[in-house]
Design brief:
The protein contains 3 helices and no strands. With 123 residues, the protein is mainly α.
C-alpha cells in the first residue's frame, strides 16, 4: 500500500499553481498596502505636528501682542492726560496775572514792597 500512496496523481496542477500565485499576489499587495498606509500615517502625523506647533506659536505671539497693546493703550491714555494738563498750563501761562504769580513762586522774583523768604525743603 505504501507504494500506491506515493503515486497519487495530482489533478489540476495548473489550478493549484494559479491559486498559489494568486495567494502570493494578495500577500504582496497586502504588504504594499501596509507600507503605503504607514507612509501616509507618518505624513499625516508630521503634518499635524507641524500645524499644531505653528498654531501654538501663533497663539503665544497673539497673547504677547495683546499684552503689549494693552500696555501701549494705558501709556497712550496717560500721555493724553498729560497733554490735557500741559494745554491747560499753556492757557494759564497766557494770562499775565498768572504768569506774574508763577514767576514770583518759581523764580523767586518779588513784586514791589515784597520780601521773599526761602525755606529749605525737608528730605
Amino acid at each position: 500500500m505504501q507504494i500506491n500512496s506515493r503515486r497519487i496523481p495530482i489533478l489540476n496542477q495548473s489550478y493549484i499553481n494559479e491559486q498559489e500565485s494568486l495567494q502570493k499576489l494578495k500577500q504582496k499587495r497586502r504588504k504594499l498596502l501596509f507600507r503605503r498606509l504607514t507612509v501616509f500615517f507618518l505624513f499625516v502625523t508630521f503634518t499635524t505636528y507641524f500645524l499644531v506647533k505653528t498654531l501654538h506659536s501663533q497663539a503665544i505671539t497673539v497673547r504677547e501682542k495683546r499684552a503689549e497693546l494693552s500696555s501701549l493703550q494705558e501709556q497712550y491714555k496717560n500721555l493724553q492726560d498729560q497733554q490735557k494738563i500741559l494745554q491747560e498750563e499753556i492757557i494759564k501761562l497766557q494770562d499775565d496775572e498768572y504768569l506774574g504769580k508763577f514767576a514770583r513762586q518759581e523764580l523767586y522774583l518779588s513784586d514791589e514792597d515784597e520780601i521773599i523768604f526761602s525755606i529749605p525743603d525737608e528730605e
